[in-house]
Amino acid sequence: MNILFCERLKDLRKEKGIGQTHLAELCGVSKGIISLWENGLREPTMGNLIKLAKIFEVSIDYLVGISDY
């Protein structure tokens, strides 16, 4: 798993003041899935990457570490 994704997801979530439970509700997954993503134990689907990008108003490229913006 892309370590940069794990770090960026956790940082973005904390910057927005969103808890794992609330993010899970927004994405339609369990809190445990959010934890697995943040710990690099599971990868989100493309659909969930799109949801995360919209929630945090960033590009998928930024989320996965391809770009810095």
Verbal overview:
With 69 residues, this protein is an all-alpha fold. Helix content is 65%, strand content 0%. The protein is built from 5 helices and no strands. It has helices spanning 3-15, 20-27, 31-38, 46-56, 60-64. The protein is globular, with a radius of gyration of 11 Å.
Short structural description:
With 69 residues, the protein is mainly α. Helix content is 65%, strand content 0%. It starts with a helix and ends in a 5-residue tail after the last helix.
Poorly predicted sequence stretches spanning 5 or more consecutive residues:
none
Mean pLDDT: 95
Tally of contiguous helical segments? 5
What general outline do the C-alpha atoms trace?
Answer: globular
Secondary-structure element order, as H and E? Answer: HHHHH
Taking Cα atoms only, what radius of gyration do you get, to the nearest Å? 11 Å
How would a textbook summarize the main sheet? none
> Helical percent range?
55-70%
Q: Estimate what percentage of residues fall within beta strands.
A: under 5%
End-to-end gap: 20 Å
Structural class: mainly alpha
Compute the number of strand runs. Answer: 0
How are the SSEs placed, and which strands pair?
Blueprint: H1 3-15, H2 20-27, H3 31-38, H4 46-56, H5 60-64
Helix pairs in contact: 2-3
